[in-house]
User: Fold this.
Amino acid sequence: MNVIYDGTLEGLFSVFYEIYAQKIKAPLIFKESVYQPALFEKAMHVETNSENAERVVKGIKKKAGKNFYQFFYAAHNDRDNIENDLFAYAKIILDSQQSRSTDYSNPFVLKVSQYGKSVGREKHRMEAFVRFRLTKDGIYFASIEPDFDVVPLIKKHFESRYQDQKWMIYDLKRDYGIYYDLQKTERIQITFNQNKIGILSTSPEIFSEEEMDFQELWANYFKSTNIESRKNMKLHLQHVPKRYWRYLSEKTVKV
Assistant:
């Protein structure tokens, strides 16, 4: 049977709960945004239920132990068709008397571990490469376009390090972000009046005069310390892949 959900993480875990509750055999899970119904196919749409989702998470966490983070990170790999691998992993973990979270001879355990590592790498890169810029509204703003949906995973990192200033991190690819107002962090969506790409540049229409001066100062410093004769572009790209350059002040500001 085809099982359809809203594409959210809570929605996916709600699906896992319903599959077990209704004893559905051989389910195929799809996001509603990509599902294309065919004639004579049975399909069930599962509504997101926070309580049911939490029960699933607690069950997997209890069985997987310290390796639960592999599954949790993997669940933030929001590419299409990953849901069934995640459910296969969850079923293996939940149905086993002993922990099988490190049984890499099982193809689904191995897959989820690999998914988790990929998401984890992207999480750490976003934490390292995000650069805030001060807007005219007094908010430190950063735009990102990560390969995976890592905004929920980097939330605690920035909350702990930037407690004394208002900031916003916005995922342009997924069109949502998080905003910290000195007291709490909330999920937000922005309606852009112009092309989103404009927010990636340092524009005097958006950012404060002090920020513009700082950007130029930092770019000049980076240029002055960059010894041309010692440049090793291959090594540089290994540590800072080119697709992350758009977030870095020293790469985006022309001097």
Notes: The mean pLDDT is 83.
